[in-house]
Amino acid sequence: MNIGTIKETKNEEYRVGLTPAGARALAQAGHAVFVERAAGDGSGFSDDLYAAAGATLCSIAREVASSVDLLVKVKEPLEPEFSLMRPGMLLFTYLHLAPLPELTRALLDSRTNSIAYETVRRPDGSLSLLIPMSQVAGRMAAEIAAQFLKKPGPGRGKLLGGIAGSSPARALVVGSGNVGTAATRVLLALGARVTVSSTDLQRLAGLEAQFRERIATRVTGPAVLEEELRGADVLIGAVLVPGGIAPKLVTREMVRSMGPGAVIVDVCIDQGGICETSRPTTHTDPIYIEEGVIHYCVPNMPGAVPRTSTEALTSATLPYVMKLADRGLDALREDSPLAAGASTINGKLVSPAVASAQGLGCIPLDQALADS
Measured between alpha carbons, how far is 118 from 236 in angstroms, rounded to an integer? Predict the structure, then answer.
């Protein structure tokens, strides 16, 4: 199969869909690999490294897209990239389609076969391609909160860990999955006073055991959030609805109650965010002030550490890329984790979560594959 990757066009996105090592593995397996020039520069991977790995370098993204059967990316296609999609092309990337009806329509109209990293699910329920980026985003979220609490800037001038004679910052992490766990670990390491809220009592018990009861845990609900956010210094949104829209758990009034100079890092923003006041920002212009509170809502947070993120992502995705390269759409019939990631197949929407979020019809994957 012909496989390719292109330079990401999302604002300040430095990751790339394949490392040179990944390209080499595919080439050694007998596949042809096409890479847009400079695609890996932001992650520290030069064109020479891809050429040495056996990849063919292409001058522009369209040249790659027209040459490949499988396009491997990092982020969802932006509107200028819609014209690259075509019937029968396999697109393997983070999609987060639920809040993006225009992209969903473009995928369906172009009859592109798309598979979303974020919903590839192992038999044990874990989201194997979301885990590495969730861990990166969670760790970054704590660092970002510490940064924006400080002066100069609109932060309240507070050291996250405090010092003798001055209390540490009070942080609420909403969500107990990979993002929430990673954020909690770094917040504790920096000395913050941390509460984790979740609807999953088993995960909360596990976190208490893991962190040796150095955290407080609460069951997420309106009254709990109102209580915990009043006067809080930091809120980290870490709720995941696989393939769907994040619930709006935090009202404008709750945000206001945190007080001026507090910090919200809404890691869920690629699913719409958990705060009524959240809206997407960029690495170039990452924050805004709403109700006196600093909001950091960058959808592609791991793009700020592209070397780490790209290496971790390719390590996770390469086994699935290899299966798609070897078997094409048949891989969806044979591999249940990949099948769980299927979003649009042969012009049909096959993701129930996306269909529910956008009020669209959905057909079973087997039926869509039968039409191929």
Answer: 20
pLDDT of 149-185, one tens digit each?
999 999 999 999 999 999 999 999 999 999 999 999 9
Instruction: Give me the amino acid identity at 97.
Output: L
Q: What is the distance between the alpha carbons of residues 31 and 354, in angstroms, rounded to a whole number?
A: 32
Q: Is residue 236 within 8 Å of residue 194, measured between CB atoms?
A: no
Place of tokens 């040459």: 67
Alpha helices in the chain (DSSP H): 20-28, 47-52, 61-67, 101-110, 131-149, 178-189, 201-210, 222-229, 252-258, 306-327, 330-334, 336-341, 352-358, 365-370
CB burial readout 251-260, b (16+ within 10 A) else e: beebbbbbbe
Nearest to 236 by CA among 299, 206, 194, 271: 194
pLDDT digits (tens, 9 = 90+) for 194-226: 999 999 999 999 999 999 889 999 999 999 999
CB-based contacts of 202, cutoff 8 Å, min separation 6: none
Report which of 169, 209, 227, 217 is spatially closest to residue 193, judged by C-alpha positions: 169
Kindly list the catalytic residues. 96, 270
DSSP 245-268: PPP--B-HHHHHHH-TT-EEEEGG
**Residue among 120, 116, 95, 89 at smallest CA distance from 4:** 89
Residue 279's nearest CA partner among 264, 261, 258 is: 264
CB count within 10 Å of CB 166 equals 9
**Contacts (Cβ under 8 Å, ≥6 apart) of 34:** 2, 3, 4, 5, 55, 56, 57, 58, 63, 64, 67, 68
Taking the model in full, what pTM does it have?
Answer: 0.90
